[in-house]
Amino acid sequence: MSYVICAFVAGVGDLMMHILNTPTWMVSLVIGYMVVTEVLSVIENLSDAGVDVLDKLIGKLKGRL
What are the b/e assignments for 1-32, b being 16+ CB within 10 Å? Predict the structure, then answer.
């Protein structure tokens, strides 16, 4: 439910920015951040389950956040 609220608020922000004739970027940023954090969560869960190959990928993703 919190993801829906975040996306909705970002959409309202983009709508306000569109009305002010400025570039809209909030939805892209918020959705992109949520996707990256969910991918990181899945990779960490796989790593905890014993998949050792993903350790380097976790380090790279955490370094970019």
Answer: eeeeebeeebeebbeeeeeeeeeeebbeebee
Query: How far is 7 from 28, CA to CA, in rounded Å?
Result: 9
Task: Please name the amino acid found at residue 47.
Answer: S
User: Residue 11 contacts by C-beta under 8 Å, 6 or more apart in sequence?
Assistant: 26, 27
Q: Which amino acid is at 32?
A: G
pTM equals 0.73
Q: Model confidence over 26-44: pLDDT tens digits?
A: 999 999 999 988 988 888 8
